[in-house]
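Section 3.1: Structural characterization of target chains.
Under the original work plan, the team committed to producing a structural model for every single-chain target entering the pipeline before any wet-lab resources were allocated. The record below documents one such target. The sequence was received from the expression subgroup and is listed exactly as submitted; it comprises 215 residues.
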Amino acid sequence: MNPGTMKLLTESQLFPPLKAFQLALECNHWMVEAHENYNKGSYRNKYEVLGANGPILLTVPLVKGKHRNQLISEVLISHTENWQSQHLRTLQSCYGKSPYFEEYYPALQSILETRFDRLLNLNKKALEVICELLGFPIPVSITSDYIFPGDIDANSIKDYRDALKVNGDWKKNAYKQYPQIFMEKQGFVPHLSILDLLFCKGPEAVLYLKSDFTL
């Protein structure tokens, strides 16, 4: 496979897991599907961080209704509860003592304190800022139309839409360790949001992602 000819295609994710960024770096372009239907069980409105007692799954609440067959661009965020403050408090609790918390937290705070009505707009902004903080070396774009699986050339597009489920089999793979905040208490915990790597490794995060971090 020639990475110079490959593009990664994923669904829209909120602060995606490390695996998504690693897959993107194996290609030369990351495309985010913006014209699909919403599906549960994904990281579209969730992300996983590491607390003192283990992984914490943070969720952005959605306006009540059936989202499964709804266009992702039309999925609305619910603001009946102050979920933004809860997410920010959790990030402070989990990563307040991490080496790069002070450097990166303000940018994340700005995202989470902004009122986004549509989930897709929140996810797009979050990914844009994360890539900027990482110094991510490949372009990321939003699809202009839905890409049908039958139209995909496997030699040019790696289709990972809905492949990285919250409780998916991909999590059975072991990862090369990097220092985490609560490592002495619970050992290394893989498969977390990119935020964990960013707060713990800072400018070296991309070097880790470029390495062969699966065992």
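The radius of gyration is 17 Å.
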